[in-house]
Amino acid sequence: MIKIKIYRCKQPSDINFDAIKEFLSLDRKDKLKENIKPYNFGEFISELFLKYILIKEYSLDSNFQLAHNKYGKPKLKNKNLFFNISHSGVWIVCAVDSIPIGIDIEEMSYVDCSIAKKFLHIDEYYYIFDCKEKRKQIESFYSMWTLKESYVKEIGVGLSHRLNLFKVIKLINGKWIINDKGNIHHLKQYRFAPKYIMSVCTTRNKFPNTISLITFNQIEDFIKHQ
Fold it and tell me: Partners of 180 in the beta sheet?
């Protein structure tokens, strides 16, 4: 059985699209005709990042095919290999496993935490405001948000599943779970960069302690030799 692996890649401040465009999907190539701004780089790098991981790390053919469920979650055709990808700010992350997995990363910026009362479970709202310091409230909000989003991404429904209809449970040992009608989903959080928080969710309670760094230079070099 494949072990969970998590990868991260930092978005460069500039990209030579001429050098990498042949490795992009037709949809992405069409988007290159538009005026691409640095804050839009994430979707292009995410595709290259995923291809690098699946081909280089898992020896998939470069012509691998994806299928999408009705909520848009991608899955490899005819392969018992699952992945999920997320990006925020300058970081892109990807989790891979032999069973469904979800991942979410968020850059923590100012947020009015009172919106938690509308979008999160009421117990999570109280958890956030149990902190008196505003900075801690914001961190707790993003903690809850990434945990819950990694779960809905794992089960493949995304934000079509209302986040206030279920709650994240923090155990005495500090670990997080979600009990979905008797099915236990385990969650783990990572803080590998200042002002960022990342959560991973799976039914397997064995998470890696480290996150593999893949540089954009590695991806560019890989593309050159394809």
Answer: 183
Long-range contacts made by residues 73-81, C-beta under 8 angstroms, separation at least 24? 73/153, 73/156, 73/157, 73/158, 81/2, 81/54
Q: Give Dmax over CA atoms of the chain in angstroms.
A: 54
Please check the confidence at residue 28 and state whether its pLDDT lies above 90.
no
Q: Write out pLDDT tens, residues 130-153.
A: 988 999 999 999 999 999 999 999
Fill in the DSSP letter of residue 182: T
Q: What is the pTM of this model?
A: 0.93
Query: What size, in residues, is the chain?
Result: 226
**What distance in Å separates the CA atoms of residue 218 and residue 226, rounded to the nearest whole number?**
13
Sequence-distant contacts of 123-129: CB under 8 A, at least 24 apart:
123/167, 124/167, 124/168, 127/170
